[in-house]
Amino acid sequence: MKVDVISIDAKKSGTIELSGFLFGLDPRPDILNKVVRWQRAKKQQGTHSVLTRSEVSYSTKKVVRQKGAGSARHGSRRAPIFRKGGVYKGPTPRSHAFSLNKKFRALGLRHALSAKYSSGQLVILEKAELKDQKTGTFAKNLKKLGWGRTLVVGQDGSSSSANFIKASKNIPAFDVLPVEGINVYDVLKKDTLVLTKAAVVALEERFK
């Protein structure tokens, strides 16, 4: 699958052959859904908690005498039926994470990349580099490119790459990730996925 490669100035700078193994799958929503749920579940803090009747701070005095009062035999104001009483079977701190094997997670990423390619939302960039870190200049380039909500994958740590990251920080809905950090959720939530040539090579090497 041949795809055009563009420069940051929105000019064509060549072509690249994409692997059908990574970008040629028929995207399956069920696989993508499961991987995204796995990612989101891992990020949940799970710190929600309530006080039970043994933990709530309240008087321990018996409400009314056991017999002769014409009312129920209540033993404690901490019971859930009373105001300020404990909560019955409320949430407790726990992990929401569930296991998903490595092969399935890798398959999910392949389906996410294929989904972007098949929908025409994949762009291959020559290099994610800028000469300076001015956001205004970068915003003009983005206007030429026509990118909206965008994820760029391919940060390499060079000074010109650092300029690209700094210039993009104030652009709304624009994220930059190193190729090691690419994931299904971030790929799918953006309208445009931009991969540098180096990122494509790195991904194909990873999935060999």
Instruction: Quote the beta fraction.
Output: 5-15%
End-to-end span in angstroms?
17 Å
Structural class: alpha/beta
Q: Count up the domains.
A: 2
Helix content: 25-40%
Walk across the major sheet and give the strand order.
Answer: 2-1-3-6-4-5
Summarize model confidence as the mean pLDDT.
91
Count every beta strand, where a strand is a DSSP E run of 2 or more residues: 6
CATH class categorisation of the largest domain: Alpha Beta
What's the Cα radius of gyration? 27 Å
**Shape estimate:** elongated
Do you know the CATH topology of the largest domain? Ribosomal Protein L4, Chain: A
Alpha plus pi helix count: 7
Major sheet size, sense and barrel closure: 6 strands, mixed
What oligomeric assembly is this protein in?
A: single chain
Q: Considering the protein shown, what is the CATH homologous superfamily of the largest domain?
A: Ribosomal protein L4/L1
Unreliable segments (pLDDT under 50, ≥5 consecutive)?
A: none
Order of helices and strands: EEHHHEHEHEHEH
CATH architecture of the largest domain: 3-Layer(aba) Sandwich
Explained architecture:
The chain has 208 residues and is an alpha/beta fold. The protein has 2 domains: 2-45 and 97-206, 3-Layer(aba) Sandwich (Ribosomal Protein L4, Chain: A); 50-90, no CATH class. It is built from 7 helices and 6 strands. The chain has a 6-stranded mixed beta sheet with strand order 2-1-3-6-4-5. Helix 2 packs across helix 3 and helix 4 (135-145) crosses helix 5 (159-168). The longest helix has 17 residues, at 102-118. It starts with a strand and ends with a helix.
